[in-house]
User: Fold this.
Amino acid sequence: MITVRAESASRLWRQTVDAVLAHGAPCDPRGLGTWEVIGAHLTLTQPRRRLVYVPPTRVINAAFAAAETVWILAGVDDEWIYTYNRRLREFADGLVLRGAYGPRLRSWAGRVDQLDRVRHQLIADPSSRRAVIQLWDPARDHEGHRDVPCTLGYWFALRNGHLDMHTMMRSQDLWLGFCYDLYTATVLHELMAGWVAAELGAYHHHVGSLHLYDEHLPSARHLISTTTLDSAGLVSPVMPSLMLPWEDLDPLLRAVIEGQPCRHSGWAETAEVMRSYRIYKSGARAEGREVARRTPGPLAQALIAWYNHLDRAAALSDPTRETPSPSSRPGRSS
Assistant:
């Protein structure tokens, strides 16, 4: 069991990589080599410092982080997500990702909006222990689909005016998936705190199998040898506030998805980052970059860093990109 606590996502991730390398052991589920720790409790004390950015070793696709967050919160499993990560198609059954979190979150069994139920639960009883969102569905997830959720569920605890959030993971790929899962979960955490009029407390990430795939071990060891835990670069920026009234959530998400004007400053950055990437992927790379360059905020800056990462990889004829191994994909792991 490892326990790691930090105020910043970059520092939390860096310290956790160190801990897994130090305390892990080899494990080969389905014949896929990993370096694994069983049992991890990771705590991010400032959840708005949610962006993992440790260049040049680890730069994430900020557009995919933004898009997957919107996709999940909107409660959809629509195919537009493939624009931001085309390799996700490899995990679809009939073009549908059967493990998509969104429909389970917003329309469990076709009728239960778990976000709304938890919001009402905490407003009615601030000390409730029943503020639970369930994602694992045994009726679906033992059927052999290509995409199976790694997140079991979320639990919220409102104490002394602060809302803490706990995520329970059966499995977590630390190198790829963690960076995206942390981003999405802490956005949900921030929104829920706003809806129940609480201060944003600590974010807790509990993992059964926390692992690095063998293909990422050289990068992980290089990271440890080239960065120090007291590096100023490990302090992730505070992201703009995303809080908004409950009744504004779905109209805003529709506007972001459809590329319509967004009047909320924090969500406007998300919308522009997604728009930049759509333009970039259409082939108009200079125009896509310019949209990101004109957009203020740390998420847009992270997207520019991602574009630069792609340029470096192309210049070196290196196929490295934010794509999954045969066993994992960004935002999920097996």
User: Anything to note?
Assistant: DSSP finds eleven helices and eleven strands in the chain.
